[in-house]
Design brief:
By secondary structure, the protein is mainly beta. It has one helix at 20-35; strands at residues 3-4, 12-14, 16-17, 42-45, 48-52, 84-85, 90-99, 112-121, 127-133, 138-140, 146-148, 157-164, 168-177, 184-190, 201-207, 216-221, 228-235, 238-246, 262-264, 272-276, 282-289, 293-296, 301-302, 307-313, 316-321, 326-331.
């Protein structure tokens, strides 16, 4: 088996990772390598290894039984969206009230959600259906509610992409308010807006990226026109950005698939984000290290095609290419 070790240099920068020019050059180099047929059966780049995967990439289903049966109302969710199960006090969450009032086709359709719905546990111990309806100048430009206990207080939050008619998309965290007689969904925290109409962002995931013991959020702002990876502290009522890296993309314009970035947790290290560059023909492996700087853990890793999806695997990811091939991506210790 032949092992190819790319010749581009390892790169570190403080605060902002200026990889855009490097990424553009690497896209051209990657294309040349593929066209010449030089892509090896296995390619290694300073800790990042890519090998052919014999099976199609599949998500791992949760082994935990649902907290409650999925309500019939969830079948009225917006087209091509997911009903997501929680593990603590949010049994199910889904997006509803389809609307065309914000006709942006980032996800392939101008139809977006005007409301979010959830089946949650009340203080009395029963299950109650609650919803949050947006004003007419807002939509949820999303297809997948993300349920996570961000502050680890035993009550789960819902993370969504909310878009404003004038300011574009922002990351929003919803929580359950029990101060009234019945539970209700409220906005706990919001991140910065993407800037203007039809500017979008796509979440990567949640982890303790800076090692302070608190969960943070990661997303890619404007993944189609100069993507910027952004790390945010959860500081209600605000999501506070604290790190940015350029030349990344975790979405193809018009695609329904939103999973194009993974978080790899290795023992004794901070989490690593594996995400494509802007060409989607190469992968970054990025870690936010003390005292506040990005570390590129691997050389920009060229791929033998456009990557369409990244699914978490132990110590890495399973990558699906546009031509249907699957690759195993592993980050070494």
């Amino acid at each position: 088996m032949f092992t190819a070790r790319p010749f581009y240099p390892r790169f570190q920068a403080r605060g902002l990772l200026p990889l855009f020019r490097l990424g553009a050059a690497m896209g051209a180099i990657t294309t040349l390598v593929i066209c010449l047929g030089l892509y090896a059966t296995e390619a290694t780049a300073m800790g990042l290894t890519v090998t052919p995967h014999t099976e199609a990439c599949r998500t791992t289903a949760s082994s935990a039984p649902p907290l409650a049966p999925m309500p019939a109302e969830a079948n009225q969710r917006i087209p091509e969206s997911e009903v997501v199960a929680g593990q603590q006090d949010v049994a199910w969450a889904w997006l509803g009230s389809p609307t065309r009032r914000y006709p942006h086709g980032a996800l392939g359709s101008p139809v977006h959600a005007g409301s979010v719905h959830a089946l949650v546990k009340s203080r009395a111990g029963g299950w109650e259906m609650i919803e949050l309806v947006l004003p007419l100048n807002r939509v949820y430009e999303d297809r997948v509610p993300r349920i996570v206990d961000l502050d680890r207080d035993g009550s789960e939050e819902i993370v969504l992409i909310e878009a404003d008619a004038l300011r574009g998309a922002s990351l929003v965290v919803l929580g359950i308010d029990h101060t009234a007689n019945v539970p209700r969904l409220v906005v706990r925290a919001r991140g910065p807006f993407a800037g203007s109409t039809f500017r979008w962002l796509n979440p990567v995931g949640v982890a303790d990226f800076d090692g302070d013991g608190q969960l943070d959020l990661a997303s890619v702002v404007t993944p189609h026109i100069g993507g910027v990876l952004q790390l945010l502290h959860y500081r209600p009522p605000t999501l506070v950005p604290f790190a940015r890296a350029m030349d990344v993309s975790n979405h193809r314009m018009g695609a329904l698939e939103q999973r194009l970035g993974v978080i790899v947790q290795q023992l004794g290290h901070r989490p690593t984000i594996v995400v494509p560059d802007m060409t989607r023909r190469a992968l970054h492996a990025l870690r936010w290290d003390a005292p506040g700087q990005w570390t590129e853990l691997a050389d920009l890793m060229p791929l033998p095609g456009l990557v369409e999806r990244l699914i978490p695997m132990p110590q890495g990811a399973c990558a699906t290419l546009a031509d249907g091939r699957s690759l195993q991506v592993k980050l070494s210790q």
